[in-house]
Amino acid sequence: WILNYDIMARFRRRTCIILLLFILFICSIMMALKTLRPDRAGFGDPFGLGLLPELQQRTVILENKQNSLNRVQGDTVTRVNNLHSITVNTMKASMPSVNKLDEELSSPNYNFHIFYYSWFGNPQFDGKYIHWNHPLLPHWDPKIANNYPKGRHNPPEDIGANFYPELGSYSSKDPSVIEAHMKQMLSASTGVIVLSWYPPGMADENGEPTDDLVPVILDYAHKYNLKVTFHIEPYKDRDDRSMYHNVKYIIDKYGGHPAFYRHKTSTGKLLPLFYVYDSYVTLPEIWANLLTASGSQSIRNTPYDALFIALLVEERHKHDIHRSGFDGMYTYFATNGFSYGSSHHNWASLKAFCDSNNLMFIPSVGPGYIDTSIRPWNNHNTRNRVNGKYYETAFSAALLVRPEIISITSFNEWHEGTQIEKAVPKRTGQMVYLDYKPHKPNVYLELTQKWSEKYRKEQEQWLM
């Protein structure tokens, strides 16, 4: 009897230990999955709160995305390093297998638009490093800024990114790089390159003018059956007059190229399409001068008419966008929960608003977000990739609203860690870069191709 009692006691202890381990395992999975749906969590003030048109016109116009993101506020910190170790262990087994791509069999999906940056430079092609040596941006509060490092990155080992590109610290002018990028974008079954663009002689504050590179990008895009449209950045003194002249410049200079993108509207017209970054910093009345038929600088019903897509950050922007005469809206940010526009659970209501007002809704999906290499104080806006699960969740949310176009943030915005370009593991003396392990460098290209095909099939059902 004593022996039986001893056996039972050991059995109970073993059962309790197994149960405890099981509970801990479930808890770790829940913690990992939490990053997939952060949209209902508190992340401080949404991005751009201080940059709405009413306030912005009284202060300064944003010159680029870097300045915008310096306004990010919040007090919830994401424990990225801890989460990374948890998700590698818990999500490895649940990552769906993706068929290996055959680049020759991939076909472009012209309803998949991908944001592309040609602002990188290196000594071989540019005489110096450009953008890879990005400065560490200080927090706007001096007390907080003093707690973080200052200075610039020092390529090629130390670059302004949390991941490291397979192509190294490349130059956007390098023909072999441009060709490699086109092959990667085609392999992902994207179809339209949304090229970051400043007028001739202008650039972001950390870069140099790149308009002279546009013809080369168009030529290589055409070689791979890709199209190119323009992401018009918030250049100095951007208003209705300068926009009219710049749209005219783009169409006159590049509109005849076979890779220049034109979108077929519901009425059968083929029109150029322009994304307008930080559109909300300009008053609706100013935009209406350009974008409404009765406006003083109206581009409507002229040879330079086009589809103009505004950036929506806050919910109120949807009314301003409609009043301004824009043709649609996009959300850009790859940070679910960061702003009203980038929060997946708001896309259905935004799509309904667009449908009722004859506007296009273009949700932006991304694989994750991390910019602590250039904003070391911005941990709370990091979105862990969860081995591809975050990206797939974003695509799933986008398909639910049946959009005419899906935009992808981004192909190569390395500073913000939204890239789907091939990245490789790299370790230096002081830095261990993030990577795509346990998957291959092309995993996000494969996932994009998978969802491009899924979108095509579902779109056929929507149109039936």
UniProtKB/TrEMBL annotation:
Protein name (database record): Glycoprotein endo-alpha-1,2-mannosidase
Enzyme Commission numbers on file: 3.2.1.130
Superkingdom of source: Eukaryota
GO MF annotations, alphabetized: glycoprotein endo-alpha-1,2-mannosidase activity
Bilayer disposition of the protein: Single-pass type II membrane protein
Origin organism lineage: Eukaryota, Metazoa, Chordata, Craniata, Vertebrata
Catalytic reactions of this protein: N-{alpha-Glc-(1->3)-alpha-Man-(1->2)-alpha-Man-(1->2)-alpha-Man-(1->3)-[alpha-Man-(1->2)-alpha-Man-(1->3)-[alpha-Man-(1->2)-alpha-Man-(1->6)]-alpha-Man-(1->6)]-beta-Man-(1->4)-beta-GlcNAc-(1->4)-beta-GlcNAc}-L-asparaginyl-[protein] + H2O = alpha-D-glucosyl-(1->3)-D-mannopyranose + N(4)-{alpha-D-Man-(1->2)-alpha-D-Man-(1->3)-[alpha-D-Man-(1->2)-alpha-D-Man-(1->3)-[alpha-D-Man-(1->2)-alpha-D-Man-(1->6)]-alpha-D-Man-(1->6)]-beta-D-Man-(1->4)-beta-D-GlaNAc-(1->4)-beta-D-GlcNAc}-L-asparaginyl-[protein] (N-glucan mannose isomer 8A1,2,3B1,2)
Family: Belongs to the glycosyl hydrolase 99 family.
Keyword Iron-sulfur: no
